[in-house]
Amino acid sequence: MTVQQLMEQGGFTAAALPEGDREVSGVYIGDLLSWVMGRAGAGEAWITIMSNRNIVAVAMLADTACILLAEGVQPDEGVAALAEEKGVNILCSPHSAYETALRLRDAL
Amino acid sequence: MSEGLSFHFDVDGDSFTSAGQASVQVKKDLRRLGVDPEIIRRVSIAMYEGEINMVIHAHGGHAEVRVTEQAVEIILEDRGPGIADIEQAMQAGFSTAPDAIRSLGFGAGMGLPNMKRYTDHMDIQSTVGVGTRITMRVDLPQ
Fold first, then answer.
1. What CATH class has A3-107?
2. Which residues of A fall within a CB distance of 8 Å from B115?
3. B37 to A63: CB separation less than 8 angstroms, yes or no
4. Where are the domains of chain B?
5. Tens of pLDDT along A34-72?
6. CATH T-level fold of B5-139
7. pLDDT greater than 80 at residue B19
């Protein structure tokens, strides 16, 4: 399933979607960035509530398929534009991290 | 590539929000050289953690990346406060990062453990009051 399809099926919105055809291979949930870099796999959708610029670098380096901001969190100012520029997908979910994960489970 | 390639970066200690520029550049350079994606992931994450550490603790520093046919070597050098107890600093969860850093999602005490985890060899030389030099190596498949 691609990030674009995941967005449509899960009822999420896109803050940045420069690579919507990227395949999603799994899910990782976490807010501590070093944990994410230590544990998230390449191609996974990363559910978090962190919204600062560093998430773009972390997503790039960990090579996740997309960042999925839960709990209605929106990216900080300038972060969506940065993500667009760097080729990092950011989706937004109005639901809790748990509810968001359930939707991913159904979709994947 | 037989003689090896070398990249040098200055890590800006005052711009925490732009930290990662050197690691992202290394990622691009390695991709251009045709290095295996999983190797690139390990190198660039290890380097990013080092970069973040230099910004948090040492007001920046220098990074040198050398690529040979055998391995990718990363040397990080700073003139920060140094690490008093390296063994303690290597323990997962141990951190001296300030709260402001933690609120950004860093400072979980996983930086050095991640650097070790993702590299095949890691060496820390540090003197309190003088600085720290970390050498990491990721072997390339032969």
1. alpha beta
2. none
3. yes
4. 5-139
5. 999 999 999 999 999 999 999 999 999 999 999 999 999
6. Heat Shock Protein 90 (3.30.565)
7. no
